[in-house]
Every structure is written in structure tokens, then in C-alpha cells.
Amino acid sequence: MIVESNYISILTKHLPAHWDSFRIGSVFVERTEKVSDEDYAPLSVTMKGVVPQLENVAKTTNGENRKRVCINDFVINSRSDRKGSGGMSKYDGSVSLINTVLKPNKKYDNRYTNYLLTNVLFQEEFYKFGKGIVDDMWSTKYFDMKYIKVPCPPLDEQISIANYLDKQSKKIKHFIQKKQAFIELLKEQRQAVINHKLIIEDRKVKIKYCVTKIGAGVTPTGGATVYKNSGVIFLRSQNIHNDGLRLDDVAFITEDIHNSMNGSQVKKDDVLINITGASIGRTYVFELDEEANVNQHVCILRPIKDKILPKFLMLQLQSDVIQNQIKTIEGASREGLTNSTLKNYYIYTPSIERQMELITEIKTETAKIDQAIAKAEKEIELIKEYREAMIAEAVLGKLHHKIIKPEVCQTTSL
User: Fold this and answer.
1) At the topology level of CATH, where does 203-349 sit?
2) Cα 317 to Cα 299: distance, rounded to the nearest angstrom
3) Which is more confidently placed, 199 or 172?
4) What's this model's pTM, rounded to 2 decimal places?
């Protein structure tokens, strides 16, 4: 990126008068040492920071060609489709070459650096300095990010800011944990309603006799590199929840890729169920009038509607009768829930009229519970947004009066 002489960083536009500001390249040196993951434990760079390598991530076949990471290094993923992935490392180890590793600097408190370089305003500035052909494959290397201007308060103030944010973040984390525990209790109540309503004196049949299709999807060639910002919906396990489809972070693929994956194309009223990982067993009905496809972690069930209604099949899959069977599979097999296992589960098939009655009864009795869950989830979302705003304001000196409490707090444009 060509940096214009009049470049003004959003991060340093209005700082307290006594704060300094520097370009990243003048204070943070890149660590470029290449190492093997046999000598240096592999690490994953995630939205929650740098952690020991996750089991479910795609692993490189070139373990000899990785970047070394030392404790207190700051690591950030260079790619725009991993926006927000980064953090201060608590571990010695190695990361893939798509990450940029910055050595700590004595001018900066490590905790302040972590808050500064993970806040949303820095992420936007980082993205702006990137290069690429398309937005979703934008990449910001050290050569470009070194021109970004960042604030540098006096070290004692950095420590005060970090202490303040640590304290406030701890309170927010506690609030979120209490809300999450409350949500889990509500979900147990909801599950109890479903289980009670599905105690039915009726015949059972295997799922395979009630559907025209049972099959999982595939990941397109190229994996996440072919995802787009628009196009055909590409559903992954994180999008499938028992209370609905969550599409805030949904991926998209092109029409050509969608057509080449005709075996995993989703139709309206298909029942989708997660078949691997921590979310195994989560299920919901696809009710959109849009084209969609699924990856290999999601299975499609296409009900024969004169035998079983999509919502009724979904409710039975969510019931403890089926979920307890899935849990035994999860613990015993690394394969997850296979088609052959799923299609042989027994379900009730009362008359269509009775199915409709039960769906309505369950919906009525769970409505207030669902509203309470939605309210609690919204409160969590809002407190997370508040935390992001608080961090941005604190590291840029906007909360200077609250944290440092000086007699006079002046600002200037840099």
C-alpha cells in the first residue's frame, strides 16, 4: 500500500496531548524465524487469541515451514476472512505462515498491546492497509501493516488502562457466564416440554422409511478460500441451532460451485442436522425460499411429507430419546453420526393431523421460554458490543478522565 504523506490514522486522530504515536514498523519488529512443528508446538490463531492447535482446523502438510512464536509475541492472521483473529501469545510454539508475528517492545505494556491490536478500530485500519483481488481474500502483510500509526501512552498509563480493562472485562465475563447459565436452564425447560409432548402411544418406524434423502455435504475444493461475501448460502455446523438457523456469519459460494455440488443442495423444508464435533445433534428445518448448500459436517434429511412433517421430524431429532443415542455415538466414534446410524433411528409417525396438533402445542408452550432465551442472548450481544466500544475508547485515551483522573485532559490532532 502506498501511504500518502497526509495519512491520518483513525487510531491517533484525537489523543491526549502528552501521548506519543508511532508507526508499527518503528516499534514492533517482525519475528520471521522459520521452524518445524515437531520442535515447536503448533498453535492456532483465533478470535479468542493464540491457543494450542485446535483439533478441527485444517492442518498443513508442510510442518517444516512455520513461524516461531515466543511468549508475549503478538500474532495476527493476515487474511481478511479471518478478521479479528489474533492476540498476545501465552505459549512458545509455531504458527502457519499466513500469520504475522510481532516481538514485544519495551515502550509497550504487553496487556495494553493486546487490547490495542485486537480492538475493532485497529482491525478496520489493518484491513484498510491490505491488498488483494477480492475483498474476502484481502491480505495484510507486515510490509503493509508497519505503516499503521498507533498510540503510545506513557508506560504507567498503559498499565493503568490495562488494569482498568482487566477489571471491567472480568465483570463483563461474569455477567455473560450468569446469562449463559440462565439460558441453559431455559433450554432444559424447553427440552422437558418437547420430551413430555412426544410421549406418544403410536407405532415407530425407522427414519429411512420417512425420507427420500439422507446425505451429508462436502467442502468445496479450496475450502474457505472460495467463500464469497454473497451468492449461494453455504451452511456449516455453526449455522445450525435447535432454535433456528443463525446466518450472521454464513458463508457464500458461487452458483457454479453450488451446481457442481448437486448432491448436497438444500431444498425448502429439508431437516438439517450436525453430525460431527461439539455441536453434533443440533438440528433445524430449512425454511428459506433460497438456494443453499451444506458442508460435510451437516446432513440433509428430506421428509416424505405425507408420512412426517419437517417440523415434527425436527422435534423428534431434538428429543432426549434421539439425543441420548447420538451422545453414545459421539463418545464411541471419531466418525461422528453416520448416515447408516441416523437412518436406522426409530421415530413416531402419528397421523399428519396429530403431528400438526403436537407442533402447535409445543410451539405454544415454549413461546415464553423462547422469548426469554432471545432476550438473554440479546443482552449478551449488547454487553459484548459495549466491551468492544469500551476497549476502543480506553486504548485511544477517550476514557482518560475515568481511568487516570488527571486535573486537565487535553486532546490534539496528530
Assistant:
1) Adenine-n6-DNA-methyltransferase TaqI; Chain A, domain 2 (3.90.220)
2) 12
3) 172
4) 0.78
